[in-house]
């Protein structure tokens, strides 16, 4: 009998359109307690890589123009634009993080960089062919989608850019690597990205809309399973090797959570079927599950801040 895990694990790009996003999110967490090795993740990448140019956005264009309200389109673009820019940012910054890792992790990280490039093209195609943003090249479309980005993009991705500059100066600095890993693997990928996936893909599946987007973004979420598992393995191994590095995770989380509510406008996600309280609970659950599964404890002050998370999102 084929299980939901088998369906996620083995589906081709054509088949993954029929996979439920909740099954993919369960798949993300399935291996977090044991955390597969880097070469295991690389082998999985070779089985699961997909061709972004095989996606067909023809029905998506019809849905976008005739079956979605203006409020739905605005909310959808707003929550997705952070992903558009986030994929491009980490595509060019991950090589810096890769430099200081083990040989096995470098092999695996090369696959994640390729994933991020594919995801960048996925959003470029969606924004050109469905949303209709203008542009002759990738940068033009990035510039066109930038005004839609949630304000919270500036916080975590600005912090990540600063941390990437730290690593450029000293790629093997263990504390700097943990700070970068906490911001990117735990928060941006493990909380923001998976929350955006849950929100937009649930909307698409419930409404029967945007099949090209659903297919490509579900495949992207499967890729994220490898990324989150690889990133959490890095954080767990780093703390086990040098327990003092746990303080870097804690301090980075304090910084991120302090920035979380610093916005003057919020996303109107009700148009996509999500209340602010539902988004807040989703984000808390995503963060808590990652920390619990890999055994990273938190002091009381951070736990209190997590309970006050604001439901503002930017993915990547």
Task: List the keywords.
316 residues; mainly alpha; Ribonucleotide Reductase, subunit A; globular
Taking pLDDT < 50 over at least 5 consecutive residues as the criterion, the unreliable ranges are none
CATH homology superfamily name = Ribonucleotide Reductase, subunit A
Domain tally: 1
Q: What about the largest sheet?
A: none
The level of helicity is over 70%
CATH class: Mainly Alpha
Q: How are helices and strands ordered from N to C?
A: HHHHHHHHHHHHH
Judging by the overall fold, what is the CATH architecture?
Orthogonal Bundle
Count the E strands: 0
Structural write-up:
There is one protein chain. With 316 residues, the chain is mainly α. It has a single domain, classed as Orthogonal Bundle (Ribonucleotide Reductase, subunit A). 72% of the residues lie in helices and 0% in strands. It has 13 helices and no strands. It has helices at 4-10, 21-30, 38-48, 58-66, 70-98, 103-131, 138-145, 154-169, 174-207, 211-241, 246-260, 276-294, 300-307. Helix 2 (21-30) packs parallel to helix 10 (211-241).
Q: What's the arrangement of secondary structure elements?
A:
Elements: H1 4-10, H2 21-30, H3 38-48, H4 58-66, H5 70-98, H6 103-131, H7 138-145, H8 154-169, H9 174-207, H10 211-241, H11 246-260, H12 276-294, H13 300-307
What can be said about this structure in brief?
With 316 residues, this protein is mainly α. The protein has helices at 4-10, 21-30, 38-48, 58-66, 70-98, 103-131, 138-145, 154-169, 174-207, 211-241, 246-260, 276-294, 300-307. Helix 5 runs antiparallel to helix 9 (174-207), helix 6 (103-131) packs antiparallel against helix 10 and helix 8 runs antiparallel to helix 9.
């Amino acid at each position: 009998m084929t299980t939901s895990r088998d369906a996620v694990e083995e589906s081709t790009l054509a088949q993954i359109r029929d996979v439920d996003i909740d099954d993919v999110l369960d798949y993300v967490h399935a291996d977090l307690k044991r955390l597969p090795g880097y070469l295991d993740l690389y082998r999985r990448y070779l089985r699961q890589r997909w061709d972004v140019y095989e996606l067909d956005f023809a029905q998506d264009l019809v849905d976008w123009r005739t079956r979605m309200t203006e409020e739905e389109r605005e909310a959808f673009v707003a929550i997705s634009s952070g992903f558009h820019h986030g994929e491009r940012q980490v595509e060019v910054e991950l090589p810096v993080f890769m430099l200081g890792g083990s040989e096995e992790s470098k092999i695996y990280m090369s696959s994640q960089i390729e994933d991020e490039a594919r995801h960048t093209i996925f959003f470029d195609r969606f924004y050109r062919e469905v949303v209709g943003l203008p542009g002759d090249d990738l940068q033009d479309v990035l510039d066109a989608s930038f005004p839609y980005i949630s304000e919270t993009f500036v916080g975590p991705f600005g912090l990540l850019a600063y941390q990437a500059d730290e690593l450029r100066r000293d790629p093997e600095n263990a504390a700097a690597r943990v700070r970068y890993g906490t911001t990117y693997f735990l928060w941006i990928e493990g909380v923001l990205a998976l929350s955006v996936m849950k929100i937009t893909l649930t909307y698409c599946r419930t409404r029967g809309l945007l099949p090209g987007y659903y297919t490509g973004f579900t495949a992207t979420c499967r890729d994220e399973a490898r990324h989150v598992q690889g990133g959490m393995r890095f954080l767990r191994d780093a703390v086990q090797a040098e327990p003092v590095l746990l303080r870097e995770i804690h301090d980075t989380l304090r910084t991120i959570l302090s920035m979380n509510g610093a916005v003057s406008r919020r996303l109107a996600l009700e148009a996509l079927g999500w209340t602010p309280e539902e988004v807040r609970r989703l984000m808390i659950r995503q963060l808590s599950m990652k920390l619990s599964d890999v055994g990273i404890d938190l002091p009381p002050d951070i736990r209190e801040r997590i309970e006050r998370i604001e439901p503002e999102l930017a993915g990547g």
